[in-house]
Design brief:
Number of strands: 0
Distance between the termini: 22 Å
């Protein structure tokens, strides 16, 4: 069990380090470190879906300890964690305004963001795990993706125009323009996209079930490899009708990214658990055991250093030594990852694991 969980921690750590890397370039970055503008997918578009997939696996492995019994204690823990995640996400959005002096920014505070989507998906999938028969996991996933595909097709979900796109219109009418993300036609963490995101986490949940039920490590690796291969091939075939699109979290995007995450998890289990090659894992293990804490600290630190002018000062220094702007931007992003690693390493050495 500990070896299996180590490989999961390493994948989680790779993902969080990747999230911090792609979120903290300065100025012009390489295309592979930027989200695709609309249809298509870059390596940057893999980090968040990988985290949701891992969360699905973790949900299963965590709740199986209580035999999926919906006791008041378990339900309270799920509700508490869901509310805390959502509240921390709102706090980060508020802090971005507050540090500039806009303490009462509630009239234009963005409601959605990464942690808010994580919160909703975690809460819904955890309640599914407690109250639904797990044999219906795949039918529920298919049902959610089919319903969401119908919404996209009937509601102009692929149209880059907020005035006709159903995803944008639902968010606008329910929450208002001032509370949404404005750099894309659709809020990338908006409400309707939660439908396919829940299916995404359920795919991770299903893989967690496979990991738990398979007897040998070889069987676990093979099962994840088969699931990953089927999802990647199926997702790319589906993309001919429903293109890959992170902003709207399209069904093909769910399948391909979950498939790639499953394949990477299978490879890590083979490398770490079968081949016993662990010498390289410490860096990512640091991020993996305090994943949410380091993600939150990276967001707050980026806002703080940016407002104080430290980020610009560091980037200018790097740019002086590295004239090409894209390489200087990458150097800054790597510096920021190392800065957060230093925070995480202190916690790691002291065996402090921050859990919600």
């Amino acid at each position: 069990m500990s070896q299996r969980l180590l490989s999961l921690d390493i994948l989680r750590g790779i993902t969080v380090a990747g999230m911090i890397l792609v979120n903290n370039g300065w100025g012009e970055s390489f295309e592979m470190l930027c989200h695709s503008e609309w249809n298509g997918m870059t390596p940057c578009d893999l980090v968040f879906p990988f985290f949701l997939f891992i969360m699905g696996i973790s949900c299963y492995l965590s709740l199986v300890k209580s035999e999926f019994k919906p006791t008041p204690q378990v339900i309270r823990r799920i509700v508490k964690r869901t509310v805390l995640l959502f509240a921390i996400g709102l706090f980060i959005n508020w802090f971005d305004y507050a540090i500039e002096g806009d303490l009462l920014c509630f009239g234009h505070l963005r409601i959605w963001a990464v942690l808010q989507r994580i919160a909703l998906c975690y809460g819904i999938v955890s309640l599914f795990a407690l109250f639904c028969n797990h044999k219906y996991t795949i039918p529920v996933i298919i049902g959610l993706l089919v319903v969401y595909a119908a919404i996209l097709m009937l509601g102009n979900g692929y149209v880059q125009d907020a005035s006709v796109n159903v995803l944008a219109q639902v968010d606008l009418r329910l929450f208002g323009y001032d509370h949404l993300y404005h750099h894309t036609p659709v809020d990338p963490e908006g409400l309707l996209g939660t439908i396919s995101s829940v299916a995404h986490v359920l795919l991770g949940f299903y893989c967690g079930r496979l990991i738990r039920q398979k007897q040998t490590i070889n069987e676990k690796v093979i099962a994840l490899f088969v699931v990953g291969t089927v999802l990647v091939i199926g997702g790319y075939l589906l993309s001919y009708g429903l293109p890959l699109n992170k902003c709207i979290w399209s069904p093909s995007y769910v399948m391909v990214t979950c498939g790639l995450a499953s394949l990477l998890q299978a490879f890590l289990m083979y490398l770490i658990d079968i081949q016993q090659k662990k010498d390289w894992t410490t860096f990512f293990h640091v991020f993996g055991v305090n994943a949410l804490a380091l993600y939150v600290s990276s967001e707050l630190l980026a806002i703080l250093l940016g407002n104080l002018g430290v980020s610009e000062w560091v980037f200018n220094g790097l740019h002086t030594m590295i004239p090409p702007q894209k390489w200087a931007s990458l150097a800054y992003a790597l510096y920021f990852v190392l800065l957060n690693f230093a925070i995480g390493y202190i916690l790691f050495r002291k065996k402090i694991y921050i859990k919600l």
